[in-house]
Design brief:
about 180 residues, globular, alpha/beta
């Protein structure tokens, strides 16, 4: 099967989501778990009032500014030490490509996300069995299935086939923010 989108199309998609949140005035904090070379973070972070990047490899970290912060360490350590009052509006999870790790990141970050905030998971649509190897998507696709089945009362989820898959998860509060229940 041929990949339906190009290599960095997921970054463009994430940037458009961030841009929409920014225009709506609700992109105060952005978190990226799995910075890698910083392509996505450096594209999205200018749209947020504060941005946080987490990675076990700090080789490509840039100099911190007043609104960009880099954490060299594990996602677990960062999430456990993060100020629980500083909730995120947009989170991109692309660290370890194991189901257990991505699920652990999701479970740990969910309480740190504002109501109606968005969590994006990468590597949730491998187009072949070969792409489920550790060097590509691993078994992260299982995390999207897990969320779909066990978090349906707390979240809504949709997976797009952009470069190995992007799952968009919205933390539910209510569908229309302006309407009382």
């Amino acid at each position: 099967m041929k990949m339906p989108f190009g290599k960095n199309d997921h970054v463009r998609m994430i940037k458009e989501i961030a841009y929409g949140l920014n225009r709506a005035g609700v992109l105060n904090r952005y978190l990226e778990l799995g910075y890698s070379k910083g392509v996505c973070f450096n594209t999205v972070s200018p749209l947020a009032k504060e941005s946080y990047a987490v990675d076990i490899n700090n080789k490509y970290f840039l100099k911190e500014t007043k609104n960009t912060f880099y954490y060299h360490g594990t996602t677990t350590d960062f999430l456990e030490s993060h100020n629980k009052d500083k909730k995120f509006d947009l989170v991109f999870i692309d660290a370890d490509h194991k189901h257990e790790s991505s699920l652990g990141d999701f479970k740990s970050v969910l309480p740190l996300v504002n109501d109606n905030g968005i969590i994006l998971l990468h590597d949730t649509y491998p187009i072949s069995e070969q792409l489920t190897s550790k060097s590509y998507c691993g078994d992260t696709y299982k995390t999207a299935d897990f969320i779909r089945k066990l978090y349906s009362n707390e979240c809504e989820i949709c997976t797009f086939p952009f470069y190995y898959g992007i799952s968009v998860v919205r933390k539910l509060n209510r569908q229309l923010l302006w309407k009382d229940n």
